[in-house]
Design a protein that fits this description.
One of its GO terms (biological process) is carbohydrate metabolic process. It is an enzyme of class 3 (hydrolase). It holds the Pfam family Fn3-like. With 161 residues, this protein is mainly beta. It has a single domain (23-158), classed as Sandwich (Immunoglobulin-like), CATH 2.60.40. The chain is built from no helices and eleven strands. The protein has strands spanning 32-40, 43-45, 50-58, 64-74, 85-94, 99-106, 113-114, 118-120, 123-130, 144-152, 156-157. The strands form three sheets. Strands 2-10-9-4-5 form a five-stranded mixed sheet, with no helix packed on it. It has a three-stranded antiparallel sheet with strand order 1-3-6, with no helix packed on it. Strands 7-8-11 form a three-stranded antiparallel sheet, with no helix packed on it. A hairpin with a 3-residue loop joins strand 7 and strand 8 (118-120). It is globular and about 50 Å long.
C-alpha cells in the first residue's frame, strides 16, 4: 500500500458529503439552547491550552440529557486536515427550564497536524459548540455556536512543547 491518506476513507475526510448518521444524531423529548460561548484566551501561544465555556439551557417542558460537542476547524494548514475534528464532548442532564454552564479544556495536542511528525502550527482556528456537528441537519432543534481564536508563535514539533 502506497497511499496512506484517509481522504474518502473515513467520515472526517469525506469532503462535502455528510455521513448518514453523524455523531450526536437523534431525537429528544425536550429542546436545548446554547449561548455565551467564551474562548479564553482568544489569542494564545503555540503550546498553550484553550479554555472554553458555554451555557446550555433546557428550554423544553421535560427533563433531558444533551451531548455537548466541541469541534475544531483549522482555517489554514500546511497539510490536509479534517473539515472539523471532535475535540471534546460531555453528556449533561439538565432539568426542564434550568441551565448549566460547562467548562472544557482543548489541549495544544488537539491542534497538532501530521507532517512527518506531529507539529503545532500558528494560525486562526474556529471552535464549534453544540448538540450536533457543524452544518448537520436534523429534525431535533439544536444550534451550533462558533467562535474563532488565534495561535501565535513559530511552528514547532509537538514534542518541543
Amino acid at each position: 500500500m502506497e497511499n496512506y491518506t484517509m481522504e474518502g476513507r473515513t467520515y472526517r475526510y469525506y469532503g462535502q458529503e455528510a455521513p448518514l448518521y453523524p455523531f450526536g444524531y437523534g431525537l429528544s423529548y425536550t429542546t436545548f439552547q446554547y449561548r455565551d460561548l467564551v474562548l479564553s484566551p482568544p489569542v494564545l501561544p503555540i503550546c498553550a491550552n484553550l479554555s472554553v465555556s458555554v451555557v446550555l439551557e433546557n428550554t423544553g417542558q421535560r427533563d433531558g440529557e444533551e451531548v455537548v460537542q466541541l469541534y475544531l476547524r483549522w482555517e489554514q494548514s500546511s497539510v490536509p486536515v479534517p473539515r472539523w475534528q471532535l475535540v471534546a464532548f460531555r453528556r449533561v442532564a439538565v432539568p426542564a427550564g434550568r441551565e448549566t454552564k460547562l467548562s472544557f479544556q482543548v489541549a495544544a495536542e488537539q491542534r497538532a497536524v501530521w507532517a512527518q511528525d506531529w507539529r503545532l502550527e500558528p494560525g486562526t482556528f474556529t471552535l464549534f459548540a453544540g448538540g450536533q456537528q457543524p452544518g448537520q441537519r436534523t429534525r431535533a432543534s439544536s444550534e451550533v455556536l462558533s467562535a474563532q481564536f488565534t495561535v501565535t508563535g513559530a511552528a514547532r514539533p509537538l514534542r518541543g512543547c
